């Protein structure tokens, strides 16, 4: 829940994006400040008490990566201010670099402002209401805004609770336990649904049916955890090999 002290800084040199995102954030009750380059953003951060920074990467004068580096300790004073990066679609190197430098999440352009607002809410829950990064239990599996708590068997996306079946939970837990690892449908069946058995005694017909069944569960999971199931952010298919959860 937003209040009058929840200030969010949007730093982007594209005025249309700043305007659209500002409208959505203000509608949620947040106070919004704006900057058009990294230098302006750092200036505002130095004099304002902010709750979150939305930071574009490609900007004039000072780009987002330079600003993030400075914010996270490049000037000798590390800030834990939550940062959501705005990246160009397909610029994977920028995403990885930003996350390695301390960004908390990213959204690829073009995006719908509502998606960004959902990410903002997720980060604010984590940092404002839970207190700090340390408040997130270490046993919770997390990939970007997707979280799975083995203790409560709860699954959330951007802070919103998602209802999954026991089979869907088992598949998701397996994939999230080893992000970026590709599992074949047979491996998912054996390790998530059969408790790690090799499946060597199963007939080819049964194995084929099981693999088709996994594909159905994967489709249902995508419908629940992805904003756009046809263009998934988390649960990816690696053609000819299987499925993976991307570590974002």
3D structure, described in words:
With about 250 residues, the chain is α/β, with parallel strands linked by helices. The chain is elongated. About 5% of the residues have low confidence. It starts with 6 loop residues before the first strand and ends with a strand. Helix 1 crosses helix 5 and helix 2 runs parallel beside helix 3. The chain has two domains: about 130 residues, Rossmann fold, CATH 3.40.50; about 100 residues, Winged helix-like DNA-binding domain superfamily/Winged helix DNA-binding domain (Arc Repressor Mutant, subunit A, Orthogonal Bundle), CATH 1.10.10. The relative contact order is 0.09. It is about 40% helix and about 20% strand. The protein has a five-stranded parallel β-sheet with strand order 2-1-3-4-5, with helices on both faces. Strands 6-7-8-9 form a four-stranded antiparallel β-sheet, with helices on one face.
Q: Sheet with the most strands?
A: 5 strands, parallel
For the biggest β-sheet, the strand order reads 2-1-3-4-5
Helices and strands, in N-to-C order? EHEHEHEHEHEEEEHHHEE
Low-confidence stretches: 132-138, 196-206
Helix proportion range: 40-55%
DSSP summary: helix tally? 8
Average pLDDT, rounded to a whole number, is 83
Q: Report the structural category.
A: alpha/beta
CATH level 4 superfamily of the largest domain: Response regulator
| Residue share in β-strands | 15-25%
**Strand element count:** 11
The span between the termini is: 25 Å
What is the count of structural domains? Answer: 2
The CATH architecture of the largest domain comes to: 3-Layer(aba) Sandwich
CA-based gyration radius: 20 Å
The CATH topology of the largest domain is given as: Rossmann fold
Shape: elongated
């Amino acid at each position: 829940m937003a209040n009058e002290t929840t200030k969010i800084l949007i730093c982007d040199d594209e005025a249309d994006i700043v305007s659209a995102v500002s409208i959505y954030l203000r509608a949620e009750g947040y106070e919004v400040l704006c900057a058009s380059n990294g230098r302006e953003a750092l200036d505002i951060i130095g004099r304002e008490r902010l709750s979150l920074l939305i930071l574009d990467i490609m900007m004039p004068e000072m780009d987002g990566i330079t600003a993030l580096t400075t914010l996270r300790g490049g000037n000798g004073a590390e800030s834990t201010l939550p940062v959501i990066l705005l990246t160009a679609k397909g610029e994977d190197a920028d995403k990885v670099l930003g996350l390695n430098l301390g960004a908390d999440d990213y959204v690829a352009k073009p995006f719908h402002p509502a998606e960004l607002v959902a990410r903002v809410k997720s980060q604010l829950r984590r940092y404002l209401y839970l207190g700090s990064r340390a408040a997130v239990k270490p046993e919770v599996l997390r990939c970007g805004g997707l979280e799975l708590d083995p203790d409560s068997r709860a699954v959330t996306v951007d802070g919103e609770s998602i209802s999954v079946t026991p089979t869907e939970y088992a598949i998701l837990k397996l994939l999230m336990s080893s992000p970026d690892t590709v599992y074949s449908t047979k491996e998912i069946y054996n390790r998530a649904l059969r408790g790690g058995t090799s499946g060597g005694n199963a007939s080819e017909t049964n194995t084929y049916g099981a693999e088709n069944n996994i594909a159905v569960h994967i489709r249902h999971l995508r419908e629940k955890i992805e904003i756009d199931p046809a263009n998934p952010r988390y649960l990816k298919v690696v053609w000819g090999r299987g499925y993976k959860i991307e570590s974002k």
